[in-house]
Recover the amino acids of this structure.
């Protein structure tokens, strides 16, 4: 089975979802992302869906699950690059994904994550090694 | 019975020029057809009389006559002629035909009456066709205009880098919402916009349905990563919305100017006066 | 109304759902649907194909390319021989779910289509038909 690669860029993990996300691949992604967040201490997850021609409720739920898992692990998820036709369809479908942050592209998504880090600060900033 | 139409055919053939002349005179005295040149009118009259003769021969309106009239009517409807003028073009043929029949059958009043009535029946049928064709053409125009209006009335304006305005005028139904959404989302992509001000100063009422359409548009923009602000809710509309229990749950500013100020502030910009106001 | 070219696609696993989606995309493209309309009908088909798999225990999709005078379109019929739906009205309401989705499948598919019909009999199966016209 193919696995979707997860890249670490600065304080965030970047996942680019390609066309036709199969169910088992989606499941594996949820699992892999959780592990990577813990291992890397990433504070944000960028999911680039600009290649997706459709987002149905299964993919919508996958994204919501990822965001939920990430939030529990103190990382913010930003979905970036949704196409206009996909956004219109999702709204008609009744799927407005209220719990997920969005941005126009990966660059702006990264800005959202950086802004959050600046606002909340990370635990590391306050730990001073006195030795 | 079989000879009746033939009578009309002979009369038309024998008095063609006279009929045409009188028909044109009728049209001129009605004051109609001012928009067309005498020559255009004559051409139309001639081709129609020819098709009419053919129909009289067949005893019923021929396909050519139908097509000719439908085409003529359509052109007139598109050019904005009133329906009365279009109908009277056909009706004005009655008198010249009757006069020609009476003249040709001077000594046979019964036969003359028969031909006059035959011509009248044929023309009455044509009037019905003209009315229908006219209504169809008008519907076509209305449909076309509706499309044009929906495209014209949904401009997306760039106010600043990353800030768009969508001034809505008129009401929002589901088909218009589709057009608005498509235009807005494409503009968001093209301009890389992060903020859109939806100004509803020109929206006459906001009921639950209109609010739903607005919320859909806002939700779609948000999915793309752009925030929406509403501006221009008039006091009466705000009141109606509260009474209806309509909630928009987005940032709302009284005027477009305030909304722009808010949008600029959100993007880390400020408008500063370089000189004291009025100076 | 004349229709041409009917394709049959089996839905037995999640790869088949993807295949149905691709077939619908091709048909929608051929029918000349706008990008938004293509996206809507593909999404609706994806929801229903998944319903067929998850709730109907598998089945098939019949994809029809439509041509009616000047209009063209796509119609897809999803059939399964599963347990059927006890309360169709409830199943069409947003938020209703017995499976893994978000409970938007059936009602959502209706929202996204120009034509929608559903026939279901307990213990016999379910048939859902959707169409989108240019």
């Amino acid at each position: 089975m193919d696995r979707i690669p997860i890249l670490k860029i600065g304080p965030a993990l970047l996942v680019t979802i390609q066309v036709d996300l199969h169910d088992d691949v989606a499941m594996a992604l949820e699992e892999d992302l959780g592990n990577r967040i813990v291992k890397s201490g990433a504070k944000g997850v960028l999911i680039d869906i600009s290649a997706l021609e459709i987002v149905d409720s299964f993919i919508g739920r996958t994204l919501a699950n990822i965001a939920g898992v990430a939030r529990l692990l103190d990382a913010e998820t930003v979905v970036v690059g949704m196409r206009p036709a996909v956004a219109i369809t999702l709204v008609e479908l009744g799927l407005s994904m209220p719990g997920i942050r969005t941005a126009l592209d990966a660059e702006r998504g990264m800005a959202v994550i950086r802004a959050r880090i600046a606002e909340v600060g990370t635990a590391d900033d306050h730990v001073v090694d006195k030795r | 019975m079989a000879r009746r139409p033939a009578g009309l055919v002979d009369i038309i053939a024998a008095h063609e020029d006279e009929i045409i002349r009188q028909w044109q005179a009728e049209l001129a005295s009605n004051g109609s057809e001012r928009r067309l040149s005498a020559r255009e009118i004559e051409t139309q009259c001639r081709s129609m009389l020819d098709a009419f003769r053919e129909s009289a021969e067949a005893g019923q309106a021929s396909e050519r006559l139908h097509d000719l009239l439908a085409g003529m009517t359509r052109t007139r409807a598109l050019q904005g002629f009133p329906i009365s003028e279009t109908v009277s073009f056909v009706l004005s043929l009655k008198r010249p035909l009757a006069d020609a029949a009476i003249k040709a059958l001077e000594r046979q009043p019964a036969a003359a009456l028969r031909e006059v009535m035959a011509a009248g029946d044929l023309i009455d049928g044509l009037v019905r066709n003209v009315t229908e064709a006219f209504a169809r053409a008008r519907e076509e125009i209305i449909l076309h205009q509706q499309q044009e209006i929906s495209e014209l009335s949904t401009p997306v304006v760039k106010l600043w880098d990353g800030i768009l305005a969508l001034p809505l005028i008129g009401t929002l139904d589901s088909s218009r919402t589709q057009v608005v959404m498509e235009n807005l989302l494409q503009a968001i992509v093209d301009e890389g916009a992060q903020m859109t001000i939806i100004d509803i100063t020109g929206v006459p009422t906001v009921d639950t349905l209109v609010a739903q359409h607005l919320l859909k548009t806002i939700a779609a923009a948000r999915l793309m990563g752009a925030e929406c602000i509403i501006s221009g809710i008039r006091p009466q509309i705000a009141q109606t919305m509260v009474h209806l229990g309509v909630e928009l749950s987005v940032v709302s500013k009284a005027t477009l100017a305030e909304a722009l100020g808010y949008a600029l502030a959100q993007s880390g910009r400020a408008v500063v006066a370089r000189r004291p106001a009025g100076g | 109304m004349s229709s041409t070219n009917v394709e049959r696609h089996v839905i037995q696993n999640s790869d088949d759902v993807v295949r149905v989606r691709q077939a619908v995309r091709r048909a929608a493209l051929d029918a000349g649907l706008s990008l938004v309309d293509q996206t809507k009908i593909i999404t609706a088909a994806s929801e229903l194909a998944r319903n067929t798999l998850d709730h109907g225990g598998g089945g098939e999709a019949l994809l029809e390319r439509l041509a009616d005078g000047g209009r063209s379109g796509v119609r897809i019929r999803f059939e399964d021989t599963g347990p059927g739906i006890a309360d169709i009205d409830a199943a069409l309401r947003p938020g209703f779910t017995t499976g893994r989705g978000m409970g938007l499948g059936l009602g959502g598919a209706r929202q996204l289509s120009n034509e929608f019909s559903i026939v279901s009999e307990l213990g016999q199966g379910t048939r859902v038909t959707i169409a989108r016209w240019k």
The beta strands of chain B are 157-160, 163-169, 195-202, 227-231, 252-253.
